[in-house]
Amino acid sequence: MKISARNQFKGTIVSIAEGAVNGIVQIDIGGGNIVSSTISMNAIKELETGSW
Predict the structure, then answer these.
(1) Could you tell me which CATH class the domain 5-49 is placed in?
(2) Where are the domains of the chain?
(3) What is the full per-residue pLDDT of the chain (52 aa) written as tens digits?
C-alpha cells in the first residue's frame, strides 16, 4: 500500500475526471464536505482496480 499517513480521508469517491497525465478525484467526507485532489493517472488506475 503506497499511501501517506498525512493524506488519508475516509469517504466515498463521487467523481473521477481523467486527464492526460493527472486527474481530479472528488471525495465526499460527510457533513456536506467534498475534498478535491489532483492525483496521477497511475494512482487513479489503482483506485479503479482496488489495489490500494
Answers:
(1) mainly beta
(2) 5-49
(3) 455 656 677 889 999 999 999 999 999 999 999 989 899 998 888 877 765 5
